[in-house]
Amino acid sequence: MVAQRYHEIQSRVKAACERSGRNASDVTLISVSKTKPAELIREVYDAGARDFGENKVQELMEKYPALPADIQWHMIGHLQTNKVRQVVGKACLIHSVDSVKLAREIEKESARQNTVTPVLLEVNVAREESKFGFFLENTEAALKEIAEFPHVRIQGLMTIAPFVENAEENRQIFRKLYQFFIDIKSKNVDNVNMNVLSMGMTGDFEVAIEEGATMVRVGTGIFGERQIRENV
Ligand SMILES: *Cc1c(COP(=O)(O)O)cnc(C)c1O
């Protein structure tokens, strides 16, 4: 069943790409497997998925050794500085860098492991109090500061749009972040690659693709409802 849902979401990703004149290969579908057991993740893996997203370090640590080594694990949840050590070297991309302090910790640990860690800056476009992330007007200054860290490589931006009934309500949010993304990209900041725009979830990933997302993070649409309503 999860395999079938995965294929369905994949076709919807493809259709949204076609509608908006984009290549399907420009958009990566991340299967968000938080709270779901390894056996279920394995089914989606067998259906062809290689990119999975987790929002808790503890869960990532448990699943990482239990599943195939060619999985690309995306850290999409708020990350505490004291957990950075566990994530560096395991996550292919940290989507949720929401402070310079966190980036500094990633820098320290990446230097220690002699690696460079790819990250996205999380932007709280809608200025929701319940959410982490930089406000849009503070993002450029933070980006320039983080760009100075040699073992951290900014690859783009991420946002979690508000929970809405109608995905269209988030179109302006996605459009705003895309515009900012293009603007920063044109500035060619040293040590920054503005290539990844991670936005869109089960309820609104098609609108996000139409507005320029290069990564969408889909949980419920593939794995079904989660038992716990966790804070994201
Ligand atoms: C849980 C989560 C998702 C997936 O949400 P769904 O609505 O289940 O698709 C995407 N992004 C983040 C950061 C999440 O925590």
Walk me through the topology.
Blueprint: H1 2-19, E1 28-32, H2 38-46, E2 51-54, H3 57-66, E3 72-75, H4 84-87, E4 91-97, H5 100-112, E5 117-122, H6 136-146, E6 152-158, H7 171-186, E7 192-198, H8 205-210, E8 215-218, H9 220-223
Parallel strand pairs: 1-2, 1-8, 2-3, 3-4, 4-5, 5-6, 6-7
Bound molecules: pyridoxal-5'-phosphate.
The site of pyridoxal-5'-phosphate has 15 residues, from strand 8 and helix 9.
Can you walk me through this structure?
- It is a single chain.
- The longest helix is centred in the first third of the chain and has 18 residues.
- The mean pLDDT is 97.
- An eight-stranded parallel beta sheet has the order 7-6-5-4-3-2-1-8.
- The chain starts with a helix and ends in a 9-residue tail after the last helix.
- It has 232 residues and is of the alpha/beta class.
- The protein has a single domain, classed as TIM Barrel (Alpha-Beta Barrel).
- The chain is globular, with a radius of gyration of 17 Å.
- Helix 3 links the parallel strand 2 and strand 3.
- It contains nine helices and eight strands.
- 41% of the residues are buried.
- The chain binds pyridoxal-5'-phosphate.
- Pyridoxal-5'-phosphate (PLP) binds next to strand 8 and helix 9.
